[in-house]
Write a structure and sequence with these properties.
This protein is mainly α. Helix content is 65%, strand content 0%. It starts with a helix and ends with a helix.
Length: 65
């Protein structure tokens, strides 16, 4: 599973909107869309913010190198 696929799955499991995640991380909704679709990878500081929001380590759940 790619990072984007995992981000999308985590968000949907929690029944959160992209807008909600974006607000929690401090980015635009479009950024969340781009990450989920694999168009861009979040910067390190945003990965840390996503980890805080989801309460997990994304390194552990993503098989991307």
């Amino acid at each position: 599973m790619t990072l984007g696929e995992r981000l999308q799955a985590l968000r949907k499991e929690r029944r959160w909107s992209r807008r909600f995640v974006a607000a929690q991380v401090g980015v635009t909704e479009q950024s969340v869309i781009n990450w989920e679709h694999g168009m861009y990878r979040p910067r390190t500081d945003k990965v840390r913010a996503l980890e805080r929001v989801y309460g997990i380590s994304l390194k552990e759940v993503s098989d991307e190198k």
